[in-house]
Structure formats: structure tokens, C-alpha cells
Amino acid sequence: MRVAGPLRIVVLIFTAGLTWIMGSILLGTHGSGFSRLQQLFSSPENAVTTEPRARKYKCGLPQPCPEQHLAFRVVSGAANVIGPKICLEDKMLMSSVKDNVGRGLNIALVNGVNGELLEARSFDMWAGDVNDLLKFIRPLHEGTLVFVASYDDPATKMNDETRKIFSELGSTNAKELAFRDSWVFVGAKGVQDKSPFEQGALRLPAPSFSFLLAAPQHVKNSKSTNKYEGWPEALELEGCIPQRTMGTQ
Length: 249
Description:
The chain is of the alpha+beta class and 249 residues long. Helix content is 20%, strand content 23%. The chain contains four helices and eleven strands. The protein starts with a helix and ends in a 7-residue tail after the last strand.
């Protein structure tokens, strides 16, 4: 009986409060009780705020590419632990997840007109046969895009012909590439002149076929500057490539 008294008072107070809220809703006096509750729980002061996330575009680029351009990102391997990545138009062409990367040079060939992947392979430049690489890059067609990402060692098996072909594709670093250097590069079959890469430009026969937002990168393997023991830091290269027009030579 001692408990029944206080409990009865609580029930009466709750009923009276509920009756007042319902009356306010029906009569519309002093504003809607329901609206007040809505305002209470939806007001900015009571909302959980979070920092807005920076918008990412295709392949994680910080800004969108112009129309009729291909968005890309190339990431070299980190030491001999984390494999490289090659992304084009938000499609991962090569990565450890796809299980199509390996020690040495990882190369994706892409149709410069429609951006379709032609072939993707890795070439072991430490214990492999350089002739396999030469057979892959010798017969390229005009306008073929060449995406390259190093992993572990990209250069031990390189010979003069290999370096010459990469130079003709637009590389300024292929001649100097050495044991365990980090290297990311995007070139094309048919490059005429080499503009300074720090300006991110490559020229092909008209119409222009320039690279935007990107510059090929190369970091030497050096004990004094290596980020990882025995290996330099990983590199990233990103940008926008104008699609080649059908019928251009």
C-alpha cells in the first residue's frame, strides 16, 4: 500500500501531461506540442554534426576530368610488401586484389580512343627474361596508352633496347632507371616531342594528346634517402588524358 500511493501520483501526472499535449495538438493553442518535440530533436543544436568529406572523383582524383578525357591514377609498389595499382576511369586495371601484379614492371596497355584495356602484365626485372617485356612493347599501335608502375626492382634486367623504347614512349627517366628505384609513368606510342615533364605535357601528332595534372616520377634507391629499408618511397601519379580521335595518325 505504501508503494501504491506514490505510483498513483506518478500515473496522474503522466496522464495530465499527455492530455495537455494532445489538447494542444488538437486545438492548436500555444503551438503544436508535436511540433515542439520535432523542433527539439531536429534543431541544429541537437543534431550530430560531422566534418564534410572532400569529394573524390574517378580513381580518387580531387577534381573531375573534362569531357572526353580519361581519369587515371598510377601507384608504385611500396618496398616489396605492398603491390602497385593502376586505375583508369574508376576501373582498377592492375592491383594486388586483382592478383595481376608482380615484382618488376607492371604495365597496362590501353586503347587511346575508347579507354578500353588491351592487356595487362607484369615482368620480373630481377630474375625474368627481358625478351618477354620486349615482345610485349615492341608491336604497340599508334596512340596506345602505356601505364607503368614499378614494384621492388624495375631495372636489373633492362637493356639498351628496353630503355630506348620507353624513351620513345615519352619517358625521360628510363635511361637512368636502376636497381630498386621507384618509377611511375604514363606514355603513348607515337610521342613526337618531349615537353618538360614537370609541366605535365606530352605531344602526339595533331590533334594534341596532352597529359593534365600529372608528371612522370622517379625516385632513386639511396641509403641516405630511402623511406623503407632498402627501398625508396612509393610514388603516385594522377591526371586526365584526352581521348584520341578516331582516324588520327
